[in-house]
Design brief:
By secondary structure, the protein is α+β, with helices and mostly antiparallel strands. 27% of the residues lie in helices and 32% in strands. It has helices at 8-21, 34-41, 45-57, 86-92, 111-117, 164-171, 188-193; strands at residues 61-64, 68-71, 77-79, 97-108, 124-134, 137-146, 176-184, 202-211, 214-224, 229-231.
Length: 237
């Protein structure tokens, strides 16, 4: 795509993002007003507002009534109403994703896991624990239980080069998911794996995912509370 084909609001978004990520506009800095952006980029007020609105929804900017728009604290944000691949989220911010596989094995399903995957208790299930990193900093501990029926080759995968989410989406196309989001304190083991204090709060997401034939996986995703947040934007017609 040539530069002329890029929508003007995206050009403004990239300009703001570059100044923030490049350090020119630190956290709490006031960004140019919509009128200033209109002048600078020769666009309508609506175009400038669209750029600012989208960056606000993405968590990069924050509005203060009567004062203006400012650079928000830079915490990764995930859409609450979408199932996203953590690697894609990280790459979309221009950062590098890497992962460490702590466990990848077959185990008998506990009562809770069996109920979640709609299997008889003690049925064999695949179990993985993976730490996902954003530019080398631990961002997510993913513990996942997988129904072998829908991903028989799960244990053969190299999850350092692809995420379980990406793999499962390919072999058992997602048709539905449920989320439970809660604030928790980590165990010492989890705190150590995420390089955080054990008394610091975490954000835990428990997600069940379905394909058209049944429950594919149960995932427990834990993030340090000061490094991650959930957000969403709803449109009502």
């Amino acid at each position: 795509m040539n530069k002329a084909a890029v929508p003007r609001y995206k050009v403004i978004k990239q300009y703001i993002r570059d100044n923030i990520e490049g350090g020119s506009w630190p956290v709490s800095s006031r960004v140019p007003s919509e009128n200033q952006l209109c002048e600078q980029f020769s666009v309508s007020r609506m175009t400038a507002r669209k750029a600012v609105d989208e960056l606000t929804q993405e968590g990069l900017l924050v509005r203060s009534q009567g004062l203006g728009t400012f650079v928000a604290e830079l915490q990764p944000q995930s859409p609450l109403l979408e199932v996203r691949n953590i690697a894609d989220e990280i790459h979309e911010r221009g950062h590098n994703h890497s992962s460490e596989v702590l466990s990848l094995e077959e185990i008998p399903a506990s009562e809770t896991v069996a109920i979640s995957l709609e299997l008889p208790e003690t049925s064999p299930v695949f179990h993985s624990i993976i730490i996902h990193y954003d530019n080398g900093r631990p961002l997510q501990r993913e513990e996942r239980y997988v129904n072998p029926r829908f991903a028989p080759d799960y244990l053969k995968q190299d999850f350092r080069v692809q995420t379980p989410s990406a793999y499962l989406s390919r072999v058992a196309a997602l048709t539905a998911a449920t989320h439970v989001v809660e604030a928790v304190l980590p165990t010492q083991d989890i705190a150590d794996s995420l390089v955080m204090e054990s008394h610091a709060p975490c954000l835990r997401i428990i997600r069940r995912s379905w394909c058209d034939k049944g429950v594919v996986s149960l995932a427990k995703l834990i993030h340090p509370g000061d490094r991650y947040r959930l957000g969403g934007h709803l449109s009502f017609t």
